[in-house]
Write a structure and sequence with these properties.
- The chain has 177 residues and is mostly helical.
- The protein contains eight helices and three strands, in the order H-H-H-E-H-E-E-H-H-H-H.
- Strand 2 and strand 3 form a beta hairpin.
- Helix 3 packs across helix 5, helix 5 crosses helix 7 and helix 7 packs across helix 8.
- The protein starts with a helix and ends with a helix.
- 31% of the residues are buried.
Length: 177
């Protein structure tokens, strides 16, 4: 025979069990398990991006650069997500999901975007002037200079422009390497 106290304790125990260890049905509803899997994947990607940033030799932490796995919000709103983006106003490097297709691509993207952070530290126009003799100037010159920086760091990946060897050496010298 159950007393009222036993019934209350049993009900509280059952409720507590649901809070501590959800049933399989609750665990498989999708959102929490998926969110955990995405968080775990993003966490691994962030660690990989940080290792790649550390591999550049740049003091990016001292520069207060933040690495974000995902698409730069302005690009996402436009329906596109490049491999990487550096936002000088927030000092964030965005590493898009497609950058993780291979280790070579990830290292190139992070080196290129950290190159933009280096450009900010040393002056945007200054770095684009240094590749002007090879053709590109202005914004295009900054992009080409970032490609040369990645190449000088040993992470070349000729996507839009293959940095000439003498330009690569020049950028390496500017970076003190």
């Amino acid at each position: 025979m159950r007393t009222r106290a036993t019934t209350v304790i049993t009900a509280i125990s059952a409720a507590a069990a649901l809070l501590v260890a959800p049933t399989a049905a609750l665990a498989n509803e999708g959102a929490p398990a998926t969110k955990t899997a995405e968080s775990s994947s993003e966490s691994a990607q962030l660690r990989a991006a940080i290792r790649a940033a550390d591999g550049t030799g740049f003091p990016w932490r001292q520069w207060d650069v933040e690495i974000v796995v995902g698409c730069y919000p302005g690009h996402a709103a436009a329906g596109r997500c490049p491999w990487g983006t550096y936002d000088p106003s927030s000092n964030k490097v965005y590493v898009g999901k497609k950058a993780f297709a291979s280790q070579q691509r990830l290292e190139y993207v992070v080196s290129h975007e950290m190159g933009h952070a280096w450009q900010k530290q040393t002056g945007w126009e200054e770095s684009s002037k240094h590749v002007a003799k090879w053709g590109p100037t202005g914004k295009d010159g900054r992009e080409k200079a970032a490609d040369c920086i990645a190449a000088a760091l040993g992470k070349p990946m000729a996507i839009k422009w293959s940095c000439p060897a003498d330009a690569r050496r020049h950028m390496a010298k500017l970076m003190g390497r």
